Amino acid sequence: MAKPLDTTTRYRTIFVSDMHLGTRGCQAALILDFLRHNDADTIYLVGDIIDGWRLRASWYWPQAHNDVIQKLLRKVRHGARMVFVPGNHDEFARQFIGQSFGGIEIVRNAVHVAADGKRYFVLHGDEFDVVVRHSKWLAHLGDWAYDFALFINTHFNAVRRFLGFGYWSFSAWAKLKVKNAVNFIGSFERELAAEAKRRGAEGVICGHIHHPALREIEGVTYVNTGDFVESCSFVVEHDDGRLEVLFWGTPFAKLAPVKNPKVADADEPADAEVEIEAA
């Protein structure tokens, strides 16, 4: 059943990443709808909120993208604590770490203490991507290829909507059919979990790879917020400290539960295929 348009759900914490404002693949309308209907005491922006890479190549900033920024600032004015952890695409903001703009705290990483006392290491995750770290030119090449996949994704879903079907991420499906991509995701998850353990945290919350997940890896809770380009996913903390991955699927604010199992084999990433029915 669709969520009423005039209702707002409040959580203890919301974690969201990879909006990629400044790109044509950004789902600005869905982001705005998500922000209208969800509030939290604390909101973590876990990197790649603004895509500086794409903006440097060609400027694209429609009014809807500006509206997203204004909506985030309005939430701060209304009392929400907002913490911004810049990613590789908005690495320009890393020069302002330790400062606050419009009430938004900019940090390199953070430790979030959940209501149940569990400690989560929060970071974007690009530091553990060997391509981004050692071959930035290859990362940029991959970024252009990803944009092309999103172009196909957009038109593919336009046809699905015309035929009465819900959203389905062609790009996420194609990515996980490539064995090297699956291996990379598994390695990325294990490295992040190991880093959290080294830092004395019981869990890690990240973004970067556009692969929403909530799973146990060698005693560490690995959480990936996913993205707001392909899967339109985010993570919430309930008042009891329980974390949940949710998808924001339609302008009618219908939520669909994550299809990934809450606990999965650490050596086999859960399927990222996402389908959300229209309301």
Model description:
This protein is an alpha/beta fold. The chain has one domain: Purple Acid Phosphatase, chain A, domain 2 (4-Layer Sandwich), CATH 3.60.21. The chain is 32% helix and 23% strand. It has an 8-stranded mixed beta sheet with strand order 4-5-3-2-1-12-13-14, with helices on one face. A 5-stranded mixed beta sheet has the order 6-7-9-11-10, with helices on one face. A two-stranded antiparallel sheet has the order 8-15. Helix 1 packs parallel to helix 3. The longest helix is centred in the middle third of the chain and has 27 residues. The protein starts with 8 loop residues before the first strand and ends with a strand. The C terminus is likely disordered.
Provide tags for this entry.
279 residues; alpha/beta; Purple Acid Phosphatase, chain A, domain 2; 8-stranded mixed sheet; 5-stranded mixed sheet; 7 helices; 15 strands; disordered C terminus
